[in-house]
Amino acid sequence: MNKENIFSRVGIPSKKAKPNYFTGQVAAKDISAVIKPKNEKIYHVTFKNGTKTKLHFHDGGQTLIVTKGTGNLSIYRKFGKNNSNFKIKKTKSLTLKTGDCVHIPAQKLHSHGSINKKVDFSHIAINSFPKNNVEPKTIWYESDFKSRVTKRLK
């Protein structure tokens, strides 16, 4: 009987993430480009030198699995009806360590990233499709991380 080798190691090159969505240097590997899942997008993201994401939300929710270092997840509440200039308030802050797994519900405004300028922070990010066959979208904002969002990013 022939045994088929169902395992393979695939090199996924790192590429710089879009700089306008982060406060510093980030490298990302698009795992979903290789394995082509049908219901989510999967990335391995490394934050360098205390970098974090700018405020954002996902229309289908997101799961983070920490693979290295110590980071932070902050959840925010939006005040006002304007979609590009509004007040915010931090409602929750979690320290994330290697092995932690957290789910962020759809439409929940948040930021995550490194809290240590000397050690990289990495996680697997799984962005769920909001509906079958509908690619997930992320909406990004410029903010002061304290009280105000000043614009929606493109």
Helix-strand sequence: EEHEEEEEEEEEE
- Radius of gyration computed on alpha carbons: 17 Å
- DSSP strand tally: 12
Roughly what is the average pLDDT, rounded to an integer?
92
Overall spatial form: globular
User: CATH top level?
Assistant: Mainly Beta
What do we call the CATH homologous superfamily? Jelly Rolls
Q: Give me the side-by-side strand order of the main sheet.
A: 1-2-3-10-5-8
| Uncertain residue segments | none
Q: Which architecture would the CATH scheme give at its second level?
A: Sandwich
Tally of contiguous helical segments: 1
Q: What does the largest sheet look like?
A: 6 strands, antiparallel
What does this structure look like?
With about 150 residues, this protein is mainly β. It has a single domain, classed as Jelly Rolls. The protein is about 5% helix and about 50% strand. The chain contains one helix and twelve strands, in the order ββαββββββββββ. A hairpin with a 6-residue loop joins β6 and β7.
